[in-house]
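Help: read this over?
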Amino acid sequence: MSSNTDFLSTNEQSNASLDMDAHEVFSLLRETSRTFSLSIEGLPGTLKHEIAVSYLLFRVSDYLEDHETISPERKIALLERWDDVLEDETELTGFLNELDTIPHRPDDPEAVVAYRSGSLLGALQAFPQKATQAIFRRVRETTRGMAKWQAKGPRVEDETEMDDYMHYVAGIVGYLVTDLFAEHSPGVARRRDTLMPLAREFGLALQTVNILRGLRKDFERGWIFVPRTFCTSHGLTPSELFSPDARTAALQVVDDLVLKAERHLMSGVAYIRLIPRHLHRLRLACMWPLLFAAKTVAVSRNNPQVLCGEVKIGRETVKKIMRDSTLWGWSNAWLTSYTRRLLVSPAV
């Protein structure tokens, strides 16, 4: 089964600068996310390099937003400075000087990515113009959205607000992935308008699961992404969510988040089903994070550990999901059935 019959040729592009940059880019990628590096490095041609660089540029914004020791006002200023760099690279030196003023560990991969942002921006010069324009546009949208939410504050009123936050940090990533897929595949390009709303849902799915996994850590740094209305419907305030005395009601709130994640994940399945089946490597790149997320949802359901720490799936489970999907992921019927089974499977 061919995975290239619908893929535009990139042989005419010069790969000299890509090869030199790729070593640094993929090393940074593996250090910051083993999970996403598995998906991205399996992509064909220069697409994997475009998405790897894009992912790391998004991580620069994440690093600034998630920094645990600086004030929201400082984060806003840094995010705005990063946005200036994305508009005009001559601002890079000033941005790097600003990074020197905030605490960081030299061995922190997130900090390393931020300090190497100049190299990442340089890698964009080897990409086709449309891809580069899409990357700049989407990373800037995310960066400005993060600044908006830092100004708003650490409380989420309702599901609409939660989705707005998740749109900026993950939904836009779905848009960019689709932008780049469409540039490389005529089959994806023909379905782009149908894929785009599902791409946002896909991003919201993964971010909802991230919020589930990070409930306690976010609370400890002063943020609660669970909508207040989710809590009040079970007689709680957001701050009571982590009280041992409210564990039963809190687990009902967790179940509401689980149901929300499930809805978004099935939209993610619909997204993958629209990718032509012979583009197996593209499908797998989307499939693996979605299936890992589905299993994490199953592990999180009615699990008090969600409120006390971080739930994870085992390495053997990850390997099995990758093996199964590599063999059968070309089948849309299998994908739908397998995802549903993962969502309800017992915790591991």
In short: The radius of gyration is 20 Å.
